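@channel sequence for tomorrow's demo:
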Amino acid sequence: MNTLEKKYGLYTAIAMVVGVVIGSGVFFKADDVLTLTNGNLILALVAWGLGAFSMIFGSLVFAEFAHRIEKSNGIVDYTEEAYGNKAGYLVGWFNWILYFSPLTAILAWVSSMYTMILMGSDDPANSVETWIIAAVYMIGMYLINAFSPKLAGRLQVGTTLIKLIPLVLIGVVGIFSGLINGVTMSNFSAAASDIGSKSGTIASAVVATAFAYEGWIIAITINSEIKDSKKNLPKALTIGAFIVFLTYIAYFLGISGVLSTDRIVIEADNAVSIAASSMFGSIAASVLTGFVVISCLGTLNGLVLSTIRLPYSLAVRNQGPMPNVLKEINFKTKMPLKAAVFSGAVSMAYLLLWYTSINEIWGRYIGLDEIPIVMVYGLYVFLYIWYMREFRDLNMLKRFVIPICALAGSLVILYGGITNPSIGLYLLISVGILLMGLIFYRK
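structure tokens (generated this afternoon):
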């Protein structure tokens, strides 16, 4: 039997959306957005809203896909349905080898780095202990997901709830505090007075927020394992997207209610700790770091959960390396253990590659997490166009307005990628990986 058991409910699917999107980045994006809008609170809020377009409207489009198409892996299934078997295979190969696997390695390292910060390390990013803990975190997550997938699902739900606690607390307490002490009104007044002279930087701020929203689509990799998937997955995508958006806005307003926007820009990444200490006391900074560790581990768990499914989704189509081996489902665990081992080995190779980059053994090269962004969002554009062309039974709002908004959000991210000076190298590596995948394609 090579069919995965339906074992995840609606809450796990929602936790996949929320838990993967909200990682370590959310704690440090407030100052970046304000810096790019020259400290203008109103423009920063507009940027957060525009940046959410790609996630919210994209999730609504993919919710319709999920309602109509269910096979073994969402993004592969949808591309296959739209543009044929070879296109679906290449998308699955690309997401596995050049997207999820390197992101898994980097999240393991980030989780380890914050653990070392919590322990008071002098070199949290590159000590021997950092890399050992990163390897332990990664191996541990693969073992949990391979041998106890239901525990992995509960872990995803649990870490999502835990990581929301500091965000909601800072948001609620900060908003009320700002209204009482007048900081919020002062920030809005200052923003309103010079909004006309600072609008030129909003495009860059939108790109920054759009990257903060990345990760919502990962939930569709487990569509074949979600109970009543055609009903629950669309709900998860829609509900999860709005939870993330509202959490981001509340958190951003909470920080802005405690500190002036000018100070947030000056303090940069330290603004979060300063605001938390102001609201809850000096011990809050350490507690907040602990929550960041949990947040990162939750994101790592979601990435591992998804990465394991990608080689399996190719293997059940008799595609990719060793399909007869990687599509086998273990009788006891109801999981593709060999696919998990294979994916774990690829992720560990990327962790080693990241180590060589950090230590400049062969020179410092581009971030592994940045390589696939342009092509991934380029893929979304093609799927949105196919959606509008094919789903003629939908009303005007669902068939055109929603996908056009999603398309606009994707184009913002594409613009951010195109303006990157390393775009040529990104595309060269991406195309090379795609061509490599054709070696394992069977007609």
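heads up for whoever presents: The chain has 18 helices and no strands.
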